[in-house]
């Protein structure tokens, strides 16, 4: 049986109330909210956070496919950074697989048919000029799926039943390399094209899957052409209560990652075994996939569930959003900006820098962060054992709020953290209200971008507060 073995979503902690836009500029905005990647996040870090929960059960991955329309690097393979942060074996291939809004569906349809086990990660950050519709209706986030045959230990939770794809070359939305603003053609033209494509691909997918309309339990239609998505969804649902994409009003439309995010949220609902899900994505054509839920238990970490992440968000001001997006330049702390990271030094400390792997003294069990070569007690050299720390919960022992250190979003909060099972480390906190932090708070590690200098992103780990749904 081929299909989806695991799925997970990452939604940034911050939310922008888009009504603020009209109050700021006197135009633009909407009556919705959107997710906002923090100043230390990009599509790579969000992809890492989406994928991390999927690997905690020990599923063996054969290859990693990373797709985003907004990559952190050009030329350089961004998937290699995910590979390092997720501590995958060197034999696991890792590739960037396209930068269009259609790429994630293409990789889903390709990967789900393969006999190998694929980790598919899709991430996006949607920008637009201030007061634009794209700015108000966009969002940031990532999704990760493990695709494969499944085993007795790790069974398929959604079986692949069939699919269909239609390609049509017409100008609807485009953005030249290096541009942040997308341009769009007249909406009625795209709506007409997508309506015809959506109807045709839906019919073809059902036929290929051997499924009739009455058997469909959940229909998801996604795409950045909002009018077309609504028209196709209303037409295909034909009055039946099967149409779902309840995330958009809370997260915004997350571009290339949105179809996988919406699909993961639908799977997480816990539909009855045997339920038929149809996902349609409209982008330079139309793709549809038909899935059937199985009786396998859906495993979702409490803190990484879509419901928890939606409920645990906190507001960000529009001014800070503009600053984080480099739409406005605010006065930074008057301290020297950081120098670029050394490529050779980063390679030598790859396990520590990207995987947050410390060292453990086999004699007395002491954990060293960062890793050490020499035992403090015995003096033995190079006898340490590696110990993975990224998934361990920590407790804040003490902290300081620094308003003078260089930061794109001051103040900087540093804490001394003690980890479960041993290990102490001074670490920067993120996604935190400096006024609410307290000694004794629990934190978890999160992969972030410290800064960018000379076009080089310095990735490392920060800590963020543990958040459960009942804390909101």
From TrEMBL:
MF terms in GO: acyltransferase activity
InterPro entries with a match to the protein in the record: ChsH2_C, NA-bd_OB-fold, Thiolase-like
SUPFAM superfamilies linked to this entry: Nucleic acid-binding proteins (SSF50249), Thiolase-like (SSF53901)
Pfam families in the record: OB_ChsH2_C
Sequence ranges assigned to domain ChsH2 C-terminal OB-fold in this UniProt record: 392-448
Listed Gene3D superfamilies: 3.40.47.10
UniProt signal peptide: none
Record protein name field: Unannotated protein
Naturally occurring in which organism (per UniProt): freshwater metagenome
């Amino acid at each position: 049986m081929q299909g989806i073995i695991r799925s997970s979503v990452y939604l940034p902690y911050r939310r922008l109330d888009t009504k603020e836009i009209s109050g700021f500029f006197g135009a633009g905005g909407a009556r919705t909210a959107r997710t906002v990647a923090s100043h230390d996040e990009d599509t790579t870090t969000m992809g890492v956070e989406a994928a991390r929960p999927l690997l905690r059960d020990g599923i063996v991955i054969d290859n990693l496919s990373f797709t985003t329309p907004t990559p952190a690097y050009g030329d350089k393979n961004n998937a290699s950074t995910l590979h390092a942060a997720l501590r995958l074996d060197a034999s696991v291939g890792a590739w960037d697989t396209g930068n269009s809004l259609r790429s994630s569906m293409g990789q889903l349809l390709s990967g789900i048919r393969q006999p190998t086990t694929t980790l598919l990660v899709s991430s996006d950050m949607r920008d637009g000029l201030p007061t634009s519709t794209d700015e108000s209706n966009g969002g940031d986030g990532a999704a990760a799926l493990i695709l494969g045959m499944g085993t007795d230990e790790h069974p398929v939770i959604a079986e692949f039943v069939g699919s269909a794809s239609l390609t049509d070359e017409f100008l609807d939305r485009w953005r030249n390399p290096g541009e942040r603003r997308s341009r769009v053609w007249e909406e009625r033209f795209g709506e007409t094209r997508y309506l015809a494509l959506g109807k045709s691909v839906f019919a073809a997918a059902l036929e290929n899957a051997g499924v009739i309309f009455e058997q469909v339990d959940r229909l998801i239609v996604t795409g950045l052409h909002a009018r077309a998505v609504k028209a196709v969804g209303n037409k295909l649902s034909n009055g039946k209560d099967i149409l779902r994409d309840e995330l958009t009003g809370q997260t915004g439309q997350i571009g290339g990652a949105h179809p996988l995010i919406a699909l993961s949220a639908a799977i997480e609902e816990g539909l009855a075994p045997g339920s038929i899900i149809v996902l349609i994505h409209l982008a330079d054509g139309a793709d549809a996939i038909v899935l059937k839920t199985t009786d396998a238990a859906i495993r979702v970490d409490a803190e990484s569930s879509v419901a928890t992440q939606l409920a645990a968000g906190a507001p960000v001001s529009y001014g800070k959003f503009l600053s984080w997006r480099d739409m406005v330049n605010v006065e930074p702390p008057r301290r020297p900006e950081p120098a670029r990271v050394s490529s050779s030094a980063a390679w030598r400390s790859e396990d520590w820098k990207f995987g947050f792997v410390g060292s453990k003294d086999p004699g007395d069990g002491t954990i060293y962060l960062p890793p050490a070569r020499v035992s403090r007690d015995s003096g033995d050299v190079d006898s340490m054992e590696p110990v993975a720390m990224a998934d361990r919960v920590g407790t804040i022992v003490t902290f300081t709020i620094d308003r003078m250190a260089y930061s794109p979003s001051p103040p900087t909060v540093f804490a001394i953290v003690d980890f479960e099972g041993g290990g102490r480390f001074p670490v920067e906190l993120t996604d935190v209200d400096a006024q609410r932090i307290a000694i004794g708070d629990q934190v978890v590690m999160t992969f972030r971008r410290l800064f960018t200098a000379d076009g080089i992103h310095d990735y490392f780990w920060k800590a963020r507060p543990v958040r459960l749904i009942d804390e909101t």
